[in-house]
Give the backbone structure.
Amino acid sequence: MKTLLLKDNEQDILKAAEILKNGGLVGMPTETVYGLGANALNPQAVANIFKAKGRPMDNPLIVHISCFEDIEKFSLASKIPEKAKLLAKNFWPGPLTVILKKGSLVPDEVSAGLDTVAIRYPSHKTANKLIKTAELPIAAPSANLSGSPSPTTAQHVLNDLNGKIDAVIDGGVCDVGLESTVITLAQEKPKLLRPGGITLEMLESVIGEVLVDSAVLNKLEDNQKPASPGMKYKHYAPKANVIILKASDVNFINFINSNKSINVAAICYDEDVKILNVKTYSLGKKNDLEKHAHNLFEILREIDSDKTIKTVYSRCPETKGMGMAVYNRLIRAAGFEVKDLEKL
Ligand code: AMP
Ligand code: MG
C-alpha cells in the first residue's frame, strides 16, 4: 500500500475524511501526539489499526469526537455522569480522555471487550475538522508501532507506518507531546489511569478528590491486573539502558562526569548542558515542565538513532503538575530503574 502524505488544508482533509468513511486508516495530528484514526463504528477498520501497529488486541482504543453531543448522537456511553459534564465543560476540547460505561453502538474491537469506553474531544483544529467532515466518531491510538515512542511529527508516523496505512496528514509538531490524561468515571470514585496535559491538580480543582492508580508511578507486580490494559505493556524504551538518577543538581553532574564515556549520554536540563562532559539531550529549562513533556519523545527517538549510546542517565522529574506525566513516561523508558544517589 502507498501511504499518502496529505497537507493540512481543506481539500486534503476532505480526502482523509473519505478514506475514513471507506474504512481506511489515517494518521492525524492532535494536540497530544499523532493518532492513527479509523471509523470507530466499523469493526473491520478498527481491527486494521491493531494490525498496522502490531498492537495487542486486548489494549482498547480512545474514541475521538468533535463535540460533546457526539457522545449521545453515536450512543457511545450508556450513562453520562455529572462529573463527566463538569470535566468536559472545563477541559474539552483538550488533552483529557474520560472512561465511561460503554454504549450500545461501540464495537468490542474498540473497547477490547471491556464494558467501558474511552472518549476524547481533541482541540487540534485539523483533528476537529477531520472528525466533523467524516461525520463519524474516530477510534485512534497513537500512530506508532507498538512499543516505540508515540509520534509527535508526521515524519515519525511515516518512519513507523509507511506502507501500512492509507494516509497521514502533516499538521506540524504536536503541542503537548505526550498522550492524553486518562481518568475513569466508570467506578464509584474517579481515578487517574494515565497522567497527561490535564494534571491531577487541575482535575481535582473541578471534581474534588481523584484517586491515582498505583501503576501510574509504580511498576505493576506480575500478578496485578491493570486498571487500564495499556499499563501492562512495555512502553517507549530506547535500546540503550536508561537509568533515572534521583540526585541533587551537584550529585547528578558529578556522578555522570565521573562515569564519562563515549557510550554514555544524559537526559538533562538546559542548565546542565555546559557542565556535563557527555553527550546531552536537554528536556528544556529546569522549571519548564510543559517543555519537558513536549520534548521527551523526540529525545527518546533521537537516542535510539545513535547506536554508540549504551547508557543514558536521566534527571528525575518531580511528580507534581506536568511532572507526573513526564515521570510516568520516563520511568517506563527506564524499565523502572531509578538510582537514588542521595541514599548511597
Ligand atoms: P493510546 O491511544 O495508544 O494512548 O492508548 C489508549 C490508552 O487508553 C491505553 O493505555 C488504554 O489502555 C487506555 N484505554 C482505552 N480504553 C480504555 C478503557 N475502556 N478502560 C481503561 N483504559 C482504556
Ligand atoms: Mg500508544
Remarks:
- The longest strand covers residues 96-101.
- The chain has two domains: 4-216, 241-343.
- The pocket of adenosine monophosphate (ligand 1) is lined by residues 59-60, 62, 99, 111, 114, 116-118, 141-142, 179, 182, 193-194, 228-230 (CB under 6 Å).
